[in-house]
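Aim 2 progress update. The chain analyzed this quarter is reproduced below.
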Amino acid sequence: MATISIIAAVANNNALGGNNDLLWHLPNDLKRFRRLTIGHTVIMGRKTFESLPDGSLPNRTNVVITRNKKASFDGCETFDSLTGAIRHHQQEDELFIIGGAQIYKHALALSGKLYITSVHHTFVKADVFFPEISDIHWDMIESSDYPKDENHRYPYTFKIFLRKKTAIIDGFYF
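Predicted structure tokens:
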């Protein structure tokens, strides 16, 4: 059974982005994202896929969730539900949920691990937000702080959370 992991960069006010784009540029976060997801399946919503500058992500199985059953995206598998995509890839070791906001909202209850980059800034122009991470359901097991520098306009923290295991029903954590 695959570990379902969410990977996201989230600002102080839980902002993810605005106008279907990121509100910051953190090269080390992009390197971490690539390192963690290479060789794995990445699952995303249609809008997230459309925001990728070069289309499907290389060296990964790209999955797009869309309600449009006739839609197709170059280099991607399509599913009409998150659970359908997860079930199809359940024999893999780790699946990565990479956005957007609605996919994160649905995936949070199904996930066992979170890779969060906390961007230490509040973005007022944000229009999509990450759901709250509750201490009731999650334990932070790792945290590494980084200051702003010439390549990173904002300080940030790489965090890893594991779900507190209360029950597993049909392969999903609750």
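The CA atoms of residues 62 and 130 lie 21 Å apart. Helices lie at 27-37, 46-51, 82-88, 101-107. These observations will guide the mutagenesis experiments scheduled for the next reporting period.
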